[in-house]
Write a structure and sequence with these properties.
By secondary structure, the chain is α/β, with parallel strands linked by helices. It folds into 4 domains: 2-219, Tetratricopeptide repeat domain (Serine Threonine Protein Phosphatase 5, Tetratricopeptide repeat, Alpha Horseshoe); 245-310, Serine Threonine Protein Phosphatase 5, Tetratricopeptide repeat; 337-416, Rossmann fold, CATH 3.40.50; 428-590, Glycogen Phosphorylase B (Rossmann fold, 3-Layer(aba) Sandwich), CATH 3.40.50.2000. Helix content is 55%, strand content 8%. The N and C termini lie far apart (118 Å). 43% of the residues are buried.
């Protein structure tokens, strides 16, 4: 009789398997149940019954069926694997991982156990273990694209972008139609600043799927980095046409319109992004820059507080965390200590430190933390109670405020910009040294700066080759190059033109730079910290400004409310320095 029941169980089991393979889940479940009724210890039937129950969405019952099967046969690798799959679907990551480990113990050569285990480890952010598991899966089945793709995803998350690119290439060599790998590959190229190659890769994605909104949007970002504003705008428009609620594309579109100096349209685009996502920091920040560029300080400074997510891009730091409250102008500072700390570049510190004397006038004792190269120079700044080099221990204080939040704290408008200059001065001994070092004044002394730090994001737009400069200027002046850093091509130009003085090797820090600037009759500079230094020292200064310039210089002005001694020479169209240099040369000849 017992043998007959086993035969009956096997008959139902075979029938159930056929029904399962056809996707007839209910009928398959009924036959698995009949098989188990006939033979309650039928482990394989219990395991396959779990598969059917999982397919029917009855996860708890499926898990119970797997557990019953494993109680009968703990060495059933397939049951462990199926249990892992179900737990993975339920996002029960640790349980899934344990099941895959047991499945691998029973069958170390089963590709899917290693692959699924790696996917679970990826979800758990255990990157190194996941990479090892993908490696084992690839070794077992090197002709599969998915492990290479997933490996690339992890490498990209880890910042190993070159390795990720290689993994995506391996995945695409196996399966050229794996669209997500091609899209991720384009993103990796963009992250590596290979913008032209990224655009080409996005084009391949779009050729395969014309309505891929993210590819259109990211393509726009790459074109934006290439300075191809109109093409970038077209890409963002396509992304928005596909997905009208695409807040990132609306925000990026605003950035391009800002660069094209179409400010009303830029602001409208930012507004749309903020309607879709009210707390969207990118759009808030972009809108603030457009508002500041057009001189709407009342609306611009409050929104500029959204800059912190952009700290890395702005060469700054993450927001500082202190136990004391942030001061933004409301509290009485009389008898209080306030920490003002730098957050961006040297030029920004020189520009905004003008607010320190105003804090002292309110009765505050000001602790000013600034970058080390500025320490000697900033000792001349009125109102500083204590000067601290960045990274040094801080004394106790009652309030704190980042330097670039001071315009907001003081309610700065165009009419109330604190523009009393000079607010910095060179050290007397340093100034005397450089007067002697420069010797007798033979002609008007012109100090000039053609380029800034190459690491600056917009450096290709703001810097000028020294050779382009010297071919245009009249020679009957005494020219001193005020730069500390030079490109190789500019060093070669200096070596061939001994009529240009260069004291880079003799400058210790900004105190020497300040003394040199004070000895100049005129400073001519691209948009670098030297512009701010010369303006803060109240020296006559000509600023050579790119078409897409910093918001503080605003639009269409040849002067600045921030620096009374500043005159601006603007590009009329992007990257056209020739016309700017011709105007400067003509004015030098007429001077």
């Amino acid at each position: 009789m017992g043998q007959d029941r086993k035969e009956l169980a096997r008959t139902y089991y075979k029938s159930a398997n056929l029904l399962k393979d056809r996707g007839d889940w209910q009928a398959a479940l009924a036959d698995y149940d009949r098989a188990i009724d006939a033979q309650p210890d039928y482990a394989h039937a219990l395991c396959n019954r779990g598969v059917v129950l999982a397919a029917l969405g009855r996860a708890d019952q499926a898990l119970q069926s797997y557990d019953r099967a494993l109680a009968l046969d703990d060495k059933d690798g397939i049951a462990h694997f199926n249990r892992g799959v179900l737990l993975q679907q339920l996002r029960a990551w640790e349980g899934a991982l344990a099941s895959y480990d047991k499945a691998i113990t029973q069958d170390a050569g089963f590709f899917h156990s290693h692959f699924n285990r790696a996917n679970v480890l990826k979800e758990l952010s255990r990157w190194d273990a996941a990479i090892e598991s993908y490696g084992r899966a690839i070794a077992l089945s090197p002709g599969r694209a998915e492990p290479w793709f997933n490996l690339g995803v992890i490498q990209q998350q880890q910042g190993k972008t070159e390795a990720a690119l290689a993994s995506y290439d391996r995945a695409l060599a196996i399966n050229p139609d794996l669209l997500q790998a091609r899209f991720n590959r384009a993103n990796a190229l963009k992250d590596l600043k290979r913008y032209r190659a990224a655009v080409q890769s996005y084009d391949l994605v779009i050729a395969a799927q014309a309505d891929h909104a993210e590819a259109w949007s990211n393509r726009g970002t790459a074109l934006q980095e290439l300075g191809e504003w109109e093409a970038a705008l077209g890409s963002y428009d396509r992304a928005i046409a596909i997905r009208a609620d695409y807040a990132e594309a609306w925000s990026n579109r605003g950035m391009v319109l800002h660069e094209l100096r179409k400010l009303p349209e830029a602001l409208a685009s930012y507004e749309r992004a903020l309607q879709l996502r009210p707390a969207f920091a990118d759009a808030q920040y972009g809108k603030s820059i457009s508002l500041l560029l057009q001189g709407d300080y009342a609306a611009g400074w409050p929104l500029y507080e959204s800059r912190w997510p952009h700290a890395a891009r702005l060469h700054g730091k993450a927001p500082r965390v202190f136990q004391t409250p942030l001061w933004l102008g409301r509290e009485d500072l009389r008898g209080k200590r306030i920490l003002i700390y730098w957050e961006q570049g040297l030029g920004d510190t020189l520009h905004y430190c003008r607010y320190i004397p105003l804090l002292a006038q309110r009765g505050a004792e000001v602790i000013f933390e600034a970058q080390a190269p500025l320490m000697n120079l900033l000792r001349s700044l009125p109102g500083v109670g204590r000067l601290v080099a960045a990274g040094s221990p801080l004394p106790k204080f009652d309030y704190h405020c980042p330097l670039l939040s001071l315009p907001l704290a003081f309610g700065t408008t165009l009419q109330s910009v604190p523009a009393s200059v000079p607010y910095l001065r060179a050290e007397p001994e340093c100034a005397a040294h450089w007067r002697e070092r420069l010797g007798e004044r033979r002609a008007a002394r012109i100090g000039f700066v053609c380029s800034g730090a190459a690491i600056y994001a917009n450096d290709t737009n703001r810097s000028i080759a020294l050779a382009d400069w010297i071919t245009r200027v009249p020679r009957d002046r005494q020219y001193i190059c005020l730069q500390k850093e030079y490109r190789d091509a500019d060093l070669a130009t200096l070596a061939e033109n001994s009529w240009i003085a260069n004291f880079a090797a003799e400058q210790r820090d900004f105190s020497d730079a300040a003394a040199l600037v004070e000895s100049m009759d005129l400073v001519i500079s691209v948009d670098t910290s030297m512009t701010h230094l010369a303006g803060a020292l109240a020296r006559p200064t000509w600023l050579l400004l790119s078409f897409n310039s910093d918001a503080r210089w605003m639009m269409d002005r040849d002067d600045s409310p921030w620096y009374p001694t500043l005159r601006i020479y603007r590009q009329k169209k992007p990257r056209d320095w020739a016309a700017v240099l011709e105007r400067v040369a003509a004015d030098l000849r007429a001077m």
